[in-house]
C-alpha cells in the first residue's frame, strides 16, 4: 500500500488490509488483535470481537473495545446469549437494542454494558460453526443488509485463516474439529427404502480454499467465467451421454438442474463477490453460504429442496476452479460406500459408480427432493433429516443404513453388525423366495383369487409389473411427473408418458389418478397460498375444479394416450357426489371434443373415485350408480377418520389401522359396493403389510394395490389363508371397544398357520 494513503472503503479495502496484516510479523494474538482493530475501523464500530469454538465453548479470542482482560476468560455455551444463539442457528443477527433481547447474557468482565447495538455472524468452516464474529456500537444502530453481507464475507476469510493456522494454533483447530469415536445411532426420514452395510464416504470433497483475497480481480473474473463454461459443458455432456438409467423423470430432474447451471442471477452474484476482492474460489463459497442462508428461511418444501441443486452446482464449480477431479472417480470409491452429505443434487448422485454406492445419508432432504426421486429409481436406500450426523462421522467409519426404519448406525458395536448382516441375509433370502414364487397364483386356501396390483408414479416403476407378475397398476400417481419439472408439462409431453405406461402394461389395467397436488405436494410453477391445515385445504380435485384448464389438459393427454385401448381414470379426494359429477362432465366434454375433431378415442373408459373423505361414504347410494369403480385411499382416509395429522410425530401413530372403527367402516363400505356390483380396491400402506392385508381380505376386499416390494409377502400370506374362517372370526371384532384388535388378529394367524 502507498504510504500515507488510506485503504479504499468497503470490504474490498478491508480484505486487502487483512492480507497485509497476515504478512506482518508477530504472534497469533498480535495478528488477531490487528485484525479486529481493522474490522472495527472499517465497520465504524466501537467493538469488534472474535469468539472461537473450543471444547464445546465459545471462547473470546480477541477484541477491540471490550475489556482486554476478558480474552480467553469469557466463555459461552452454544445457545447461550446472543453469541451462542448465532452459533446455534448458524445465521446472522442484527439488533439495534441488543440488551433488551431475551437471549442477551451479560458478562460483567467484558464491560459491554455501554454498547447497545450488535451485529454478529457465524464463522463457518465446512458448513460447521467454528466461531462468531461480532461488532457493537454504543448508539442504537440499524445495520444495513450490505453491512451484514460485508461482515459475512470477512467471517468467511477469517474461517480460512483460522483453518490455515494464521489466527490459531494447530491445537485450537483440533479442538474445534475433533469428532467422537463412540458408536451412535441417528434417526431420520425414509426417502428410499432398503438395507445396507458399508463404510462412510463424505460427499463434499472438503475443498479448502487456501487463498481467499484476490491479487488481480480481472484475472479472477476470467478464471470464474472459464470454470462456469467448463461446468456447463460437463452438465450438457451428462444429459447427452447414452445412459439407460437416466430416462423419464430422472432426465427431467437433470433438465431442471441444467436450468440452474445457466441462471444469470447466480452468475451475477459470483461476479459481484469477486469484485469485492475475493478470489474466484472464495466468491463461490461466499455466494453458496448466502444462498444457503436465504433458502433455509423459505418454508416451501419444493423450493427448499432446490437448495440441494444450488449446493451441487457450487461444489461442482469449485472442483473446476481447483482442477480437482469430480466425485465420480470410481477408483476412489470403496465397493461398499455409504455416502454422507448435508444435501445433494441429482447430478451429484449420478456422478458415483452405482455398483459401489450402497446407501446415502442426508442431513436434509425430503421425499419430494430430486435426489430421493432418482435414488428410488436406482434402488439405493436413502435416509434424510439426520441433523448433525456429518460432524460425528469420519471417512472410513463402518455404517449401517436401515432405510426401512429410517435409522443410521455409525461405528456400531460388533453385535449390531452381526445382527444386521443376519438381517441382510434374511432379506436377500426372502427376496429370492418371493422371486421364485412370482408365478404362483394369488389364490387363497379356499380357492378365492385375490387381485394384487402395484402403486406406481415413475416410468422406472414399470419394470416391477413384470418382476412381480402383478395384475396391473391399481394407482398411477400422475402428479410425480409434474413435481420433477420446472414448468407445467404440455399435453404432448403428458401424452407421451401416459402412452408409455399403457403400452408397457399391455393387457393389464392401469388406473390413472388425476392430479393430487396441493398440501405437501408443491409445484414450483403454481402460486401457493399459505394454509393452516393444507392436508384438508385447497388440493386434489378442489384445486382441479377451480383450475379446470389444468385438469382438461391432463384428461386430453390421457384420452390421446389410451386411443384404441381401455382407459381407467379416477378422481382424488372427492368429498361429495357433486364434485364427481363436475369432474365427470369435464371428461365427457373432452371425449366429445375428440370425437368432433375425428381423433381416435379409447375403446372404453372406466371412471372411478377415490374414497378418502369419510363424508363421501354417506352418499354411496347416490354415488355408486355414477361410478364404474371405487378405490379406497387408506392413508388419507385414516387421517381424516381419526382427525390425525400424519405429519405430526406426536399423533401420527396414535391410532391403529386395525382398530375396530376403521375395520368396521371399511367392512360397511365394501358391503355397499358389493350390493351395487361395483369393484372396490384399497390403495395405500395398509395393503402393503401382510397382517393388515389379511384383515382387509377378511372384511371382504378382493383387490389390493400396494408398493411393488409388498407383492411377495402379501401373496405368501394369502396363499396360507382360509377366507371363510377369517371372516367368521372378524365378525366379532367390529363392535369391540378395544383401541386395536391387532393382537387378536396376530393370534388368529399363529393358530391357523397364516404367514404374516
Question: Which descriptors apply to this entry?
Answer:
alpha/beta, Beta-Lactamase, 756 residues, elongated, 8-stranded mixed sheet, single chain, 27 helices, disordered N terminus, TIM Barrel, 3 domains
List the helices and strands and how they pair.
Blueprint: H1 10-23, H2 28-42, E1 47-54, E2 57-64, E3 75-77, H3 81-89, E4 93-95, E5 117-125, E6 128-137, H4 145-164, H5 170-177, E7 184-187, E8 189-192, E9 195-202, H6 217-240, H7 248-261, H8 264-275, H9 280-296, H10 301-322, E10 337-341, H11 346-351, E11 357-362, H12 370-378, E12 382-384, E13 398-402, E14 407-410, H13 414-436, E15 451-456, H14 463-468, E16 473-477, H15 479-483, H16 491-505, E17 510-513, H17 540-546, H18 548-561, E18 566-571, H19 577-596, E19 604-611, H20 614-617, H21 620-623, E20 629-633, H22 634-641, H23 660-676, E21 680-683, H24 690-698, E22 703-706, H25 711-718, H26 723-730, H27 742-752
Parallel strand pairs: 9-10, 10-11, 11-12, 15-16, 15-22, 16-17, 17-18, 18-19, 19-20, 20-21, 21-22
Antiparallel strand pairs: 1-2, 1-6, 2-3, 4-5, 5-6, 7-14, 8-12, 9-13, 13-14
Helix pairs in contact: 1-2, 1-4, 4-9, 6-7, 6-8, 6-10, 8-9, 9-10, 13-25, 16-18, 17-18, 18-19, 24-25
Amino acid at each position: 500500500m502507498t504510504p500515507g494513503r488510506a485503504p479504499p472503503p468497503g470490504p474490498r479495502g478491508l480484505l486487502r488490509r487483512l492480507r497485509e496484516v497476515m504478512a506482518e510479523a508477530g504472534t497469533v494474538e498480535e495478528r488477531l488483535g490487528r485484525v479486529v482493530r481493522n474490522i472495527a475501523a472499517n465497520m465504524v464500530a466501537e467493538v469488534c470481537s472474535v469468539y472461537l469454538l473450543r471444547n464445546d465453548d465459545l471462547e473470546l479470542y480477541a477484541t477491540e473495545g471490550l475489556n482486554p482482560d476478558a480474552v480467553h476468560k469469557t466463555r459461552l455455551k452454544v445457545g447461550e446469549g446472543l453469541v451462542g444463539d448465532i452459533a446455534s442457528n448458524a445465521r446472522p443477527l442484527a439488533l439495534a437494542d441488543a440488551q433488551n433481547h431475551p437471549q442477551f447474557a451479560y458478562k460483567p468482565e467484558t464491560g459491554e454494558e455501554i454498547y447497545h447495538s450488535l451485529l454478529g455472524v457465524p464463522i463457518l468452516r465446512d458448513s460447521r460453526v467454528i466461531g462468531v464474529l461480532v461488532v457493537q456500537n454504543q448508539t442504537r444502530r440499524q445495520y444495513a443488509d450490505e453491512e451484514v453481507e460485508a461482515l459475512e464475507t470477512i467471517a468467511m476469510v477469517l474461517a480460512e485463516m483460522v483453518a490455515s493456522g494464521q489466527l490459531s494454533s494447530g491445537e485450537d483447530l483440533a479442538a474445534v474439529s475433533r469428532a467422537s469415536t463412540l458408536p451412535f445411532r441417528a434417526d431420520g426420514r425414509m426417502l428410499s427404502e432398503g438395507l445396507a452395510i458399508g463404510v462412510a464416504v463424505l460427499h463434499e470433497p472438503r475443498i479448502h480454499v487456501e487463498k481467499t483475497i484476490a491479487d488481480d480481480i480481472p484475472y479472477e473474473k476470467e478464471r470464474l467465467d472459464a470454470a462456469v463454461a467448463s461446468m456447463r459443458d460437463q452438465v450438457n455432456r451428462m444429459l447427452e451421454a447414452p445412459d439407460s438409467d437416466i430416462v423419464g423423470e430422472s432426465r427431467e430432474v437433470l433438465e431442471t438442474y441444467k436450468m440452474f447451471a445457466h441462471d444469470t442471477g447466480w452468475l451475477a452474484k459470483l461476479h459481484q463477490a469477486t469484485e469485492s476482492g475475493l478470489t474466484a474460489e472464495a466468491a463461490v463459497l461466499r455466494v453458496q453460504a448466502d444462498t444457503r442462508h436465504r433458502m433455509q428461511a423459505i418454508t416451501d418444501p419444493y423450493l427448499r429442496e432446490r437448495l440441494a441443486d444450488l449446493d451441487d452446482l457450487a461444489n461442482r464449480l469449485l472442483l473446476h476452479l481447483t482442477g480437482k477431479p469430480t466425485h465420480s472417480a470410481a477408483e476412489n470409491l470403496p465397493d461398499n460406500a455409504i455416502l454422507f452429505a448435508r444435501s445433494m443434487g441429482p447430478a451429484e448422485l449420478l456422478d458415483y459408480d452405482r455398483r459401489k454406492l450402497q446407501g446415502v445419508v442426508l442431513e436434509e432432504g425430503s421425499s419430494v427432493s430430486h435426489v430421493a426421486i432418482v435414488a428410488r429409481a436406482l434402488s439405493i436406500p436413502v435416509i434424510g433429516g439426520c441433523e448433525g450426523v456429518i460432524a460425528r462421522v469420519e471417512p472410513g467409519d463402518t455404517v449401517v443404513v436401515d432405510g426401512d426404519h429410517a435409522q443410521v448406525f455409525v461405528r456400531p458395536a460388533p453385535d449390531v453388525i452381526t445382527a444386521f448382516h443376519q438381517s441382510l441375509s434374511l432379506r436377500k433370502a426372502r427376496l429370492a423366495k418371493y422371486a421364485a414364487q412370482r408365478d404362483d397364483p394369488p389364490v387363497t386356501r379356499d380357492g378365492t383369487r385375490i387381485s394384487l396390483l402395484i402403486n406406481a408414479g415413475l416410468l422406472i416403476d414399470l419394470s416391477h409389473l413384470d418382476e412381480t407378475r402383478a395384475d396391473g397398476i391399481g394407482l398411477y400417481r400422475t402428479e410425480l411427473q409434474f413435481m420433477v419439472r420446472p414448468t407445467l408439462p404440455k399435453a404432448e409431453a403428458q401424452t407421451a408418458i401416459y402412452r408409455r405406461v399403457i403400452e408397457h402394461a399391455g393387457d393389464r389395467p392401469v388406473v390413472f389418478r388425476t392430479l393430487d397436488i396441493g398440501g405437501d405436494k408443491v409445484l414450483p410453477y403454481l402460486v401457493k397460498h399459505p394454509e393452516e391445515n393444507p392436508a384438508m385445504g385447497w388440493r386434489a380435485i378442489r384445486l382441479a375444479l377451480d383450475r379446470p384448464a389444468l385438469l382438461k389438459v391432463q384428461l386430453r393427454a390421457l384420452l390421446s394416450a389410451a386411443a384404441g385401448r381401455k382407459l381407467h381414470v379416477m378422481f382424488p379426494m372427492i368429498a361429495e357426489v357433486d364434485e364427481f359429477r363436475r369432474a365427470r362432465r369435464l371428461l365427457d366434454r373432452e371425449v366429445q371434443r375428440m370425437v368432433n375433431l375425428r381423433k381416435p378415442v379409447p375403446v372404453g373408459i372406466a371412471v372411478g373415485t377415490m374414497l378418502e373423505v369419510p363424508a363421501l361414504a354417506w352418499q354411496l347410494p347416490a354415488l355408486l350408480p355414477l361410478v364404474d369403480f371405487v378405490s379406497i385411499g387408506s392413508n388419507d382416509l385414516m387421517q381424516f377418520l381419526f382427525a390425525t395429522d400424519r405429519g405430526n410425530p406426536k399423533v401420527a401413530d396414535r391410532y391403529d389401522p386395525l382398530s375396530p372403527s376403521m375395520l368396521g367402516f371399511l367392512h360397511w363400505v365394501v358391503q355397499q359396493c358389493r350390493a351395487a356390483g361395483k369393484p372396490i380396491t384399497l390403495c395405500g400402506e395398509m395393503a402393503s403389510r401382510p397382517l393388515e392385508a389379511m384383515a382387509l381380505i377378511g372384511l371382504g376386499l378382493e383387490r389390493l394395490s400396494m408398493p411393488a416390494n409388498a407383492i411377495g409377502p402379501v401373496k405368501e400370506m394369502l396363499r396360507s389363508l382360509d377366507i371363510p374362517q377369517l371372516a367368521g372370526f372378524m365378525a366379532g371384532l367390529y363392535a369391540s371397544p378395544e383401541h386395536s384388535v391387532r393382537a387378536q388378529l396376530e393370534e388368529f394367524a399363529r393358530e391357523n398357520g397364516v404367514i404374516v
